[in-house]
Specification:
The chain has 23 helices and 25 strands. The protein is of the alpha/beta class. Strand 9 and strand 10 form a beta hairpin. It is globular and about 70 Å long.
Amino acid sequence: MSLVPAEARSVSETAVSVSDLRVESLTHGVDIVADVSFDVAKGEALGVVGESGCGKTTMAMALLGYARPGTRIAEGRVQLGDQNLLDARPRGLQDARGRRVSFVPQNPPKALSPGMRVGRQVAEMLAVHGFSEVDDHVRAAFAAAQLPSDAAFLRRYPHQLSGGQQQRVAIAIAFACKPDLIVMDEPTTGLDVITQARLLEVIAELRGGDAAIVYVSHDLGVVRRLADRVIVMYGGSVVEEGSADELFRHPRHPYTRRLLEAIPRVRGRAIRPVGIPGSAVEPWNRPAGCVFADRCDFATDACRAERPRLARTEKGSLVRCSRLAYVDAHARPQAVTLREAREDASVPAAADVRLIVRDLVAGYRGRVGWRGRTQTSLIAVAGVSFELAAGRCLAVVGESGSGKTTLARCIAGLHAPAAGDVLLDGAPLGVTSRERSRDERRGVQMVFQDPDSSLNPSMNVGQIIGRPLRQFHGLRGRAEAARVGELLELVRLPAAFRSRAPRTLSGGEKQRVALARALAAEPRVLVCDEVTSALDVAVQASMLELLDDLRTSLQMSMLFISHDLAVVRTISDAVLVLESGHVREANATEPVFNSPSAPYTRALLDAIPDLRPDDYPAEAVTSRG
């Protein structure tokens, strides 16, 4: 993908100027975002990164003059030309949204109207803002987003499109009126690497004009590829701002350094990402001094007593750290090398084999054509076979539609295969969970991609984790409560979380509760379906470390479904590459990444947005063994 370098574009004119932005919680009376100021020039892309709960999305939504329920924009300016959006009346905001500032959401299925054809959704945006010859503009918007612009495609509904196509429709809507500012909130999260690469190409081509982009993401590889400048947020404030080149090659703030150390690597030496100790600070627990002090290796009592100001460095970047000179002189990478020799991982000894999948075929039956007259059977998994040993992790990768999730659901008993066998400890499993005994259901547990959909919102954390304890182990009362506490400790959550409702937790915390629930059954095989796709890099690193430790200490086999190949390299012993339901490559992890044999595997690896080779700091590493 070719991007127009920032220095080659005219950036003399400011597209948006944000100053002293503050958003407060009406419930707790505290600031969620405070003291945020930055400018974005025309044609420039600003990346916004940080952990979940750091204020990225709250700040981004404020750029459209929007505050979530229970919050309000207390002060600040968002200046677009001659208009301050934060002073605009409701009608003025309505006129500005879409025309002067637009938004690309993380979840297009929720943002697109399911009952409206996609062409009409773009046309409606243009018509509302007074464009003439709307049909021509619609076709141009779809073509610019690398979508078909023929009448048949424009008449499709969102559910008739793939996830990548839905996201491109959302981008077409955002760019249709050629606004001054486009705010993008995690627009590629959840997409496979090939679809993501195509989407980044679309964004790169569309940003060639005067539009400024604010790109919010936890994927630092994507931000590195797309952004000219980056701001790092923590505790509701900016802790570092600078050019993408300077920030990634020479991070200055201790938090930025730890974020980069948490990134899993696809290329070069296999380095285990290192999580950040502790949890991100919550707005109502924010300390008086430096918000990162409790997690910082360099903090002193002075850091905890007084909040540092955002100061400009000799390189032109801005850093909020009172001990910058000391940090520069003493900071050392925390990197740890992964095991390099794992060639035997894909060929377990017969005595160690925990899970066997033999010639598995699975598909879906549906109706297509006029009024459902034509019936067809879609094959999602076509004759897949593999063996998984105790304590080993097998990753299954491939783009969307390759059959990964269908394979996982068949193993978990949630989808009935058309043919083939699944054996646990040498014994055939029932085709579906209803046909499996209680011990067989306990033996294979699944952690789903979206904890919001898999956690019961009417139950608290203790009840959620306690249910499998009662169902599979017959625990009640104090025994159940004690075990819930042990499981919370196992997934590194405080015991006080047992009384919390899922809606009060962050994405990473919810995923840990889902993991604790699965572990409550004491499974012999854990199936993880995209469990890290929605997590920021720091939480993701901690989750990967936790999963790796658990499967080693419990000798639990793990089937790890993911489109993120950097994560796969970090956690897996062996890799199974699927394309259209067929196995294209199966081997130990390092050979797959260093010398892939299948063209499809090479295409997947080439599509991954990664840091540049000279971004990685000089490493003082130790062997993991």
